[in-house]
Specification:
The chain is of the alpha+beta class. It is built from two helices and eight strands; from the N terminus they run ααββββββββ. The strands form two sheets. The chain has a four-stranded mixed beta sheet, with no helix packed on it.
Length: about 180
């Protein structure tokens, strides 16, 4: 009987340990999939919402504000950067005007030439806003590269993030250029 209780106790401990490892693996997989740009974007949206907490009404005189955010991203590659790696870039522009947020996103594969990679992303937007001259815009860029297959060896990620802001939404019809330099 003592042997049976010992066996049962060990099975319970092993089950709990396996459960902890499984939760940890799920957390790590989720963390890996959440890029720096997603975390920065969430923080920027919280800041934009805090900026306009006093207004909860839909603007009566909303008008369409449209334009383009043109991102040019230059990536300097460190010596020995694996030439077989693909580099991806993503960019976003967000604004918040109660009761909601407005955004534009884009993703591209970088062009690699020697020790430099380049991404060009044009985000065309059209947002219905009541007060674009006082609505700040949050901007962000994420550059990342993955070598190998997740869960195998060798495997690694390289990532670089950039964030900025504009005091207001650009005038309708504008092309707003952002030139960003970073490195991997």
């Amino acid at each position: 009987m003592k042997t049976m209780k010992l066996f049962f106790a060990m099975a319970c401990v092993l089950g709990l340990t396996a459960s902890c490892f499984a939760q940890n693996a799920d957390t790590n997989a989720t963390t890996r999939k959440t890029s720096g740009i997603q975390a920065a974007r969430a923080a920027a949206l919280r800041a934009l919402k805090a900026h306009d907490q006093s207004s909860t009404e839909v603007p009566a005189a909303a008008s369409l504000v449209s334009g383009t955010f043109a991102f040019t991203i230059t990536i300097n590659l460190h010596p020995g950067f694996p030439t077989q790696d693909k580099i991806y870039c993503s960019a976003y522009a967000d604004t918040y005007e109660a009761p909601g947020s407005f955004s534009a996103d884009g993703n591209v594969l970088a062009t690699i030439s020697g020790s430099t990679a380049t991404c060009k992303i044009n985000l065309t937007y059209g947002w219905w806003l009541g007060s674009p001259a006082s609505d700040p815009v949050s901007l962000g860029v994420d550059v990342f590269s993955t070598y190998g297959t997740y869960g195998t060896i060798p495997y690694w990620d390289n990532e670089s993030s950039w964030g900025g802001s504009l005091a207001s939404v650009p005038a309708s019809g504008s092309i707003t250029t952002e030139k960003i330099s970073t490195s991997l």
